[in-house]
């Protein structure tokens, strides 16, 4: 018998047929599997990033003075109380509020500020807050602000006081109203030699002010802003601004400090490729929504996007 060293015609035809089948269906199957993997990967990334964004914003909003929350349609725009805005009629890109000093309230072993005014020991010029340590508050604020703020930049908010979000926190720039201690936010400083007392830092006293037993202490406002919006890609960057006090005029320009012009203001990026940032309020409850999309799959038929929502009580 002779040895066989070549394929027969039948075998060659069979190989060609199999290769044709693989070429027609196999490559498409592999491409579809790859696309599925790509979508899954993009979905996981967007889910994770958007979840982190809404959780981050919610944690900041959790320690807000509820009456102080405002919205603006643009940077430098007129402040509107969040409870009165109509997101369907206008596009709001700025969310701002006064934050409560939660770090100082927790302290290390005891609160740095107690949150209680001793009305019997207080007067029009001096407010006494037992179990408060203004020296410790000052040190903490200095560290948190990278040495750009102290207790002399802080303010008190009396729980139970009536307020107008437009005028009572400095958003509108009317510092004369704030400096006269007529607003809901009261600029204060410590009293030398007594770490349990506050006094006004504006030159006015608390005469005529409804001083309530419970108070919140604040040293910064916060702003969540949609910036660098690309009209072609229809995405922007969501940023956090902090370390500014709208109840003060630290740059001496005659206007209340706002995040877009305040000295020493800090900012950080929360998320990029954000297609939409929405918020509204029902009573004291705030609801936020962050939508994002990926450009990775654009060549395959369009953007892949999703939204995350969060309700903050």
Question: Could you explain how this protein is built, in words?
Answer:
By secondary structure, this protein is α+β, with helices and mostly antiparallel strands. It has a domain at 98-220. It has helices at 9-62, 102-106, 134-144, 175-179, and strands spanning 70-72, 80-81, 94-99, 127-128, 155-158, 185-191, 194-200, 215-218, 220-230, 235-242, 266-282, 285-294, 304-312. The strands form 2 sheets. An 8-stranded antiparallel beta sheet has the order 2-1-3-9-10-11-12-13, with helices on one face. A 5-stranded antiparallel beta sheet has the order 4-7-6-5-8, with no helix packed on it. A hairpin with a 7-residue loop joins β1 (70-72) and β2 (80-81). The radius of gyration is 29 Å and the shape is elongated.
Task: Reconstruct the topology from this structure.
Layout lengths: L8 H54 L7 E3 L7 E2 L12 E6 L2 H5 L20 E2 L5 H11 L10 E4 L16 H5 L5 E7 L2 E7 L14 E4 L1 E11 L4 E8 L23 E17 L2 E10 L9 E9 L1
Antiparallel strand pairs: 1-2, 1-3, 3-9, 4-7, 5-6, 5-8, 6-7, 9-10, 10-11, 11-12, 12-13
Distance between the termini: 91 Å
Categorize the overall geometry.
elongated
Kindly report the spatial arrangement of strands forming the biggest sheet.
2-1-3-9-10-11-12-13
**The biggest beta sheet, please?**
8 strands, antiparallel
**Class from secondary-structure proportions:** alpha+beta
What's the helix count? 4
The helix content, as a percent range, equals 10-25%
Low confidence ranges: none
| Rg from Cα | 29 Å
Strand proportion, as a percent range, falls in: 25-35%
- Find the count of extended strands (DSSP E, 2+ residues): 13
Order of helices and strands: HEEEHEHEHEEEEEEEE
* Average of the residue pLDDT scores: 89
């Amino acid at each position: 018998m002779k040895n066989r060293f070549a394929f027969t015609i039948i075998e060659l035809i069979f190989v060609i047929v199999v290769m044709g089948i693989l070429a027609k269906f196999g490559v498409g199957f592999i491409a579809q599997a790859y696309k599925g993997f790509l979508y899954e990967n993009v979905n996981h990334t967007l889910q994770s990033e958007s979840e982190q964004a809404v959780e981050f914003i919610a944690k900041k909003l959790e320690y807000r003075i509820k009456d102080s929350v405002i919205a603006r349609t643009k940077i430098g725009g007129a402040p509107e109380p969040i409870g009165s805005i109509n997101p369907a009629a206008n596009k709001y890109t700025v969310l701002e509020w006064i934050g409560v000093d939660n770090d100082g309230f927790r302290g290390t072993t005891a609160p740095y500020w107690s949150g209680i005014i001793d009305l019997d020991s207080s007067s029009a010029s001096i407010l006494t807050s037992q179990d408060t340590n203004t020296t410790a508050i000052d040190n903490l604020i200095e560290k948190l602000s990278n040495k750009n703020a102290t207790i002399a930049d802080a303010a008190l908010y009396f729980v139970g006081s009536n307020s107008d979000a437009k005028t009572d926190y400095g958003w509108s720039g009317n510092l004369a109203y704030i400096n006269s201690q007529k607003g809901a936010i009261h600029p204060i400083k410590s009293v030398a030699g007594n770490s349990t007392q506050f006094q006004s830092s504006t030159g006015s006293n608390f005469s005529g002010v409804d001083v309530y037993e419970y108070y919140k202490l604040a040293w910064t406002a916060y702003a969540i802003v949609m910036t660098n919006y690309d009209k072609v890609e229809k995405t922007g960057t969501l940023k956090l601004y902090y370390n500014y006090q709208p109840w003060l005029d630290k740059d001496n320009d005659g206007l209340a400090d706002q995040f877009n012009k305040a000295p020493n203001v800090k900012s950080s990026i929360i998320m990029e490729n954000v297609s939409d940032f929405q918020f509204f309020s029902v009573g004291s409850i705030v609801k936020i929504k962050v939508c994002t999309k990926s450009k990775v799959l654009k060549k395959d038929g369009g953007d892949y996007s999703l939204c995350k929502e969060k309700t903050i009580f």
